[in-house]
């Protein structure tokens, strides 16, 4: 059903272009291939990631939206819910029952009526409020809990790097 | 029910060596490549239980009430796939009812959007659903229409989208009647949370509450025949909603639904 997936991805792209959520840009890297997108996410205001512009890649499966895409930041990141290779680990990217991190049962899950926009908005909330219970990056989770000042310093450096400002 | 975590009360005798239902289901999954199989005589169920007197007795009871069974792929979507198929199948013989159903289906997308579903997330599933109904409506010969239904439901693209759309209609029904349904939801989840986690995602199995809402959404009733290792020689039956005249008959074995034909 790659045809249905393509139709849906085109509809979502159109929706995101006509009605972009604040601080988020997303679309296919190359319009020849709608199954690989790039997104730029602005660090939420009032958080240690404020001002940063973080690039990420989204890879969609052929049966999208029955199954969710995968998302990976392509810049350096240091965050409890992001693996060291940039992969994002939040509940909306997983169907119920698929529990790599033992998500709470109340957490938002993937279903065919979710969307790229909802994922990206969840990622923005994740940047603002890390979930230190599900440690994709254990060091970051520990530092977030125990040494917030150090965490904020690292975040600030990452923000400067995404903007090309010397750190 | 319809969920590996729950079993109807009193259905499994803990002292009995349990038939490994998981293995049976896996075997069935490998066996049927199809989403929905062909009609088979009810007695074909005996093959699965040749060493199990309790089940054999129950198959015997079942065969006094039903002639055929149609197996569905046990992938967690079985209730939705079976119910959607069996309901459309019986409507093929009733032009007027089919047309009423068609009209209800046509209006259903707007109802979902009014309930807060984003149009572009619902559209493709709705379009596929209507395309299937349209194709069937255009076939005059009932046997031809049955064949087409069977073909479409065995093309994964159509079949899965039919499943999703019935999941969305079920979710819509639950949310429309959230005050009523909230009493049946355990924990402190809202009806909307329940729908997002237990109804809308693919492969999530169905419980009573899904069935009742799906029946209301399609404006019909279903009889579920429970076949398990519980005591007694007969299978229990249950009409949902209670007191309805069932139009669709389903066989429930722990964790799985198939279609039955009188």
From TrEMBL, chain A:
Keywords, ordered alphabetically: ATP-binding, Nucleotide-binding, Transferase, Ubl conjugation pathway
UniProt-listed InterPro entries: Ub_conjugating_enzyme, UBC, UBQ-conjugating_AS, UBQ-conjugating_enzyme/RWD
Top-rank EC class of the record's enzyme: transferase
Gene3D superfamilies: Ubiquitin Conjugating Enzyme
The organism's place on the tree of life at top rank: Eukaryota
Positions of transmembrane segments: none
Record: active site: 89
Pfam families: UQ_con
EC identifiers of the protein: 2.3.2.23
Signal peptide location: none
Keyword Phosphoprotein assigned: no
GO MF, one example: ATP binding
Tagged with keyword Nucleotide-binding: yes
Every UBC core domain range: 4-164
GO terms under biological process: ERAD pathway
Substrates-to-products reaction catalysed: S-ubiquitinyl-[E1 ubiquitin-activating enzyme]-L-cysteine + [E2 ubiquitin-conjugating enzyme]-L-cysteine = [E1 ubiquitin-activating enzyme]-L-cysteine + S-ubiquitinyl-[E2 ubiquitin-conjugating enzyme]-L-cysteine
Assembly, per entry: Interacts with AUP1 (via C-terminus); the interaction recruits UBE2G2 to lipid droplets. Interacts with ubiquitin ligases AMFR/gp78 and RNF139/TRC8; recruitment to lipid droplets by AUP1 facilitates interaction of UBE2G2 with AMFR and RNF139, leading to sterol-induced ubiquitination of 3-hydroxy-3-methylglutaryl coenzyme A reductase and its subsequent proteasomal degradation.
Task performed by this protein: Accepts ubiquitin from the E1 complex and catalyzes its covalent attachment to other proteins. In vitro catalyzes 'Lys-48'-linked polyubiquitination. Involved in endoplasmic reticulum-associated degradation (ERAD). Required for sterol-induced ubiquitination of 3-hydroxy-3-methylglutaryl coenzyme A reductase and its subsequent proteasomal degradation.
Family under the similarity heading: Belongs to the ubiquitin-conjugating enzyme family.
Protein name (record): Ubiquitin-conjugating enzyme E2 G2
Biological source species: Aromia moschata
The organism's taxonomic lineage, starting at the top: Eukaryota, Metazoa, Ecdysozoa, Arthropoda, Hexapoda
TrEMBL record, chain B:
UniProt similarity note: Belongs to the peptidase C65 family.
Reactions mediated catalytically: Thiol-dependent hydrolysis of ester, thioester, amide, peptide and isopeptide bonds formed by the C-terminal Gly of ubiquitin (a 76-residue protein attached to proteins as an intracellular targeting signal)
GO molecular function: cysteine-type deubiquitinase activity; ubiquitin binding
PROSITE patterns: OTU
Keyword Hydrolase: yes
Boundaries of every OTU domain copy: 67-262
Pfam families referenced in this protein's UniProt entry, alphabetically: Peptidase_C65
GO cellular component: nucleus
Coiled coil: none
Segments for region (Disordered): 1-20
GO biological process: protein K48-linked deubiquitination; proteolysis
Name assigned to this protein: ubiquitinyl hydrolase 1
Active site location: 75, 78, 256
Alphabetic keyword roster: Hydrolase, Protease, Thiol protease, Ubl conjugation pathway
EC assignment: 3.4.19.12
Residues with site note (Interacts with free ubiquitin): 212, 226, 228, 252, 257
Class of the enzyme per the UniProt entry, highest EC level: hydrolase
């Amino acid at each position: 059903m790659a045809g249905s997936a393509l139709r849906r991805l085109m509809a979502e792209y159109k929706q995101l272009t006509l009605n972009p959520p604040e601080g988020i840009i997303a679309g296919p890297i190359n319009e020849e291939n709608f199954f690989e997108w790039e997104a730029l996410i602005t660090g939420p205001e009032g958080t240690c990631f404020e001002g940063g512009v973080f690039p990420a890649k989204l890879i969609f499966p052929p049966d999208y939206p029955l199954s969710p895409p995968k998302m990976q930041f392509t810049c350096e990141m240091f965050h409890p819910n992001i693996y060291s290779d940039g992969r994002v680990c939040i509940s909306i990217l997983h169907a119920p029952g698929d529990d790599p991190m033992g998500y709470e049962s109340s957490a938002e899950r993937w279903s065919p009526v979710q969307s790229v926009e909802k994922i990206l908005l969840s990622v923005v909330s994740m940047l603002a409020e890390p979930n230190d219970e599900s440690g994709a990056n254990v060091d970051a989770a520990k530092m977030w809990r125990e040494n917030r000042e150090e965490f904020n310093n690292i975040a600030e450096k990452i923000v400067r790097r995404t903007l090309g400002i010397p750190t | 029910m319809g969920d590996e975590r729950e079993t109807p009360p009193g259905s499994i005798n803990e002292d009995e060596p349990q038939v490994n239902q998981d293995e049976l289901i896996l075997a069935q999954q490998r066996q049927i490549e199809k989403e929905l199989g062909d009609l088979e005589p009810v007695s074909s169920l005996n093959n699965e239980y040749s060493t199990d007197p309790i089940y054999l007795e129950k198959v015997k009871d079942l065969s006094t009430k039903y002639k055929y069974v149609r197996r569905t792929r046990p992938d967690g979507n079985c209730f939705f796939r079976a119910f959607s198929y069996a309901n459309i199948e019986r409507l093929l013989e009733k032009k007027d009812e089919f047309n009423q159903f068609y009209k209800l289906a046509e209006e259903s997308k707007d109802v979902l959007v009014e309930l807060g579903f984003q149009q572009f997330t619902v559209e493709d599933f709705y379009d596929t659903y209507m395309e299937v109904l349209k194709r069937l409506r255009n076939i005059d010969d009932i046997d031809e229409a049955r064949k087409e239904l069977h073909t479409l439901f065995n093309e994964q693209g159509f079949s899965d989208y039919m499943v999703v759309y019935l999941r969305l209609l079920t979710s819509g029904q639950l949310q429309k009647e959230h005050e009523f349904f909230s009493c049946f939801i355990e924990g402190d989840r809202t009806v909307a949370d329940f729908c997002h986690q237990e109804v809308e995602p693919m492969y999530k199995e169905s419980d009573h509450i899904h069935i009742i809402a799906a029946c209301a959404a399609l404006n019909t009733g279903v009889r579920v025949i429970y076949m398990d290792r519980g005591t007694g020689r007969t299978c229990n039956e249950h009409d949902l909603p209670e007191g309805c005249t069932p139009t669709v008959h389903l066989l429930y074995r722990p964790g799985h639904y198939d279609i039955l034909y009188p």
